[in-house]
Amino acid sequence: MSERVLPEPFRDLEPFAEWVLATETERNRKRLASTMAEIQEFYNAILPRMEAVIGYLNQFPLDAMPADAQRLLHLTFSLAEVSTAVELFKQPGVVDGYDASRFVPVHK
Q1: How far apart are CA 62 and CA 74, in angstroms?
Q2: Model confidence pLDDT, tens digit, residues 78-87
Q3: Which of 37, 58, 69, 85 could form a cystine bridge with 65, CB 3.0-4.6 A?
C-alpha cells in the first residue's frame, strides 16, 4: 500500500498531487507548463475547500506539521500561484510581464 499523499479529509484532492510542490520555482514552472484547462480544473477543485483546508492546517505549528499536512500546505501555495492566471490573466503566463526565468527567489 502506498503512503497517502494528503490528510484523510482531503483525499479527494489527490488527483491534483502533481501540484504538491515545495518551492516557488517549482510552482511557477508547473503553472507555466500547464494548460489553462488544467489550471482551471485545479483551481475549481481546491478553492471551495480552502476554508476547511486552512482550518485543518491551523491545528499544527508550521515547523512541526505531519508530512501529509505539509503536502496539503504546498497544495495551497500552488493555488496562490495559479490564482492570478485564472482571475486576472486568463492564461498561464503574466500578461506583458517579464520572463519568469529571470526571477530567482532568494532564501535566507
Answers
A1: 12
A2: 999 999 888 8
A3: 69
